[in-house]
Amino acid sequence: MDVIICFQKHALKKSYKESREHFHRERSWLWKLFTGLCILVVMCLLVVWSYMGNGRKKHPSPNILSQHCAGLQKPLNSSSPAGINSKDSEKSQSLINSIYSEFGISLEDYLRLQEAVHWADPDRSITNVSMSTSPAHTTFIIENLKKSYQTGEKLFVTVHAKDFYNKSKSYGGDFFQAKLFWNNTKASVFGDVKDMLNGSYSVCFLLPWVGEAQVAVRLIHSSEAVQVLKRHRDTDSDRVYFNGYYEGPGPNKTRLSETVMCNVKWDKNGLEHMGTGDCCCEYKDPHTEEIWRCQRPKSLPCSALVYHSMGGYRNRLTEKEKKLMKQTNKDINGDKSIIKIFSSKTIGMLVNSLTQKNSTAQRCRDAGKCVAQKRGTDVLTLRQYKIKKCHPGLHTPVPAGFYLNDVWTSFVCSTRHFTTQMTSECLKDKHIYMMGDSTMRQWFEFFVKEVPNLKQMDLHVQYQSGPLLAVDVENNIDLHWRAHGLPLRTEKTAVADLHYISNEINGLAGGPHMVIMFNLGPHFTTYPLDFYTHRVLIIRTAVLALLQRAPDTTVIIKTVNTGYKDIFGSDWYSLQLDKILRWAFQDVGVYILDVWQMTACHYSKENIHPCPVIIKNEIDILLSFICPV
What is the mean pLDDT of residues 337-355? Predict the structure, then answer.
């Protein structure tokens, strides 16, 4: 009996112990579960907070084609390739397909464009000018500065933006330009500036030459000034206007004439201010379907429009905006250390090889003569260092090249430096058509001056807008230039002489002896981006058709220059247009000649019309495209 009682007590004790251990295990498991749930909730809150923050920072402003693509105005995110929610996806795709199918623009193409032109906005209301970026207080430092570097290495610089209170800024959107340079050797290279969206900017430089260098950074526009530019582009596009000149027969064999205001028909962005209904005469191009309109003359019919000219500028900046725009194109303070660069074994050989050719070209240029290099040397360089032969469709890197002794060495492809004789040989049997603005006309003027037998014809037209013609009968060269059509800031010129680029291209047969080049930019800086995009896509369609019927035609696009710094033609405006132009032609099979970097990093005084040194280097690249080796 005692044994049984003892056994029962032992069993009860064991059962109690096991129950207690089970209870502790249960409680431990519950505690772990509770802890895990808490961590999961915290992580979810962090993800939501991060998503909301990124949405505020990265949400593109819906200013491109937005009247057709309202459903696309959603933040881009990795979970949705289209950057839109499932409800809007089908509708947005339908809009893109129905409206832009003629241009071959897909939803993905549209989103790439939207991302390309997106620019960060301030994350707060700017109540006074002192809150804007101050060029005097903003500084830059060289990261991990070393005693010396080798060619081909990269140099990193950080810019810290501050306001006029010397307080660090916490948001991005400032427009900086940076370069590495050395005045003694007339050397410079463009720096790639990346906005970190927190008031800091990272700049990356390639070190391409042997010698010394320093860093220079400029504040082109503060983020607050960029907002001024945006607002006036989106609401005040009629601040540049034009004149239309009407002429016709009057009583008693007299001539009547009236001058009225004209502009693009685009019923928003301020361009609707001209009026509605029967206010105006409208001129719709049958091919591009773009409409130019002028105020209706009082005594003459719409058909009496004969001439066109620049009208004037309207500066509608407020006093606050004027103060913000004053802090434009200012050097900022920073590390002035001299960078020591020595030759490396691999990249140095490449750079030395290229610059040696440049030095030879410069000596020959200075002496007025040149000994042609053997083609075998160029081939060896191409094979050994994998420098690409120039061909259509090449990507433009940053940097695209560099200056040394005022000669540009290209990293895009294997370029040469052309003497007068080489230029004539390259252009022989070529029919060259140039279309664009006055910066493209600088190329025409260079050829007329450089090629001895190329003689300009007097076509008795207004020189600023053309058309212009030069002929070399001996070498069978004909060179044409004409303006890109309306809108055009020019002196009084015949409307009949103003042709759209796309119409001109559609009228050319193309072929191996034809070279077509054009640019489009400075005359469009005040207009909404969707208007410019539409014009560019029409030209793209014409180029695609040309290359379809004559694939051996050479087509070259000149990018936008730097040089403008005001409300009517800022570099920021030009940069936006440049991104659209590159986006539209990135897959078309044309040459893109980058002059943005060439004009931004040169030591000469900035001008929308670059100095002769820059033009000569642009022409060398142009001729290398036409006559690649």
Answer: 73
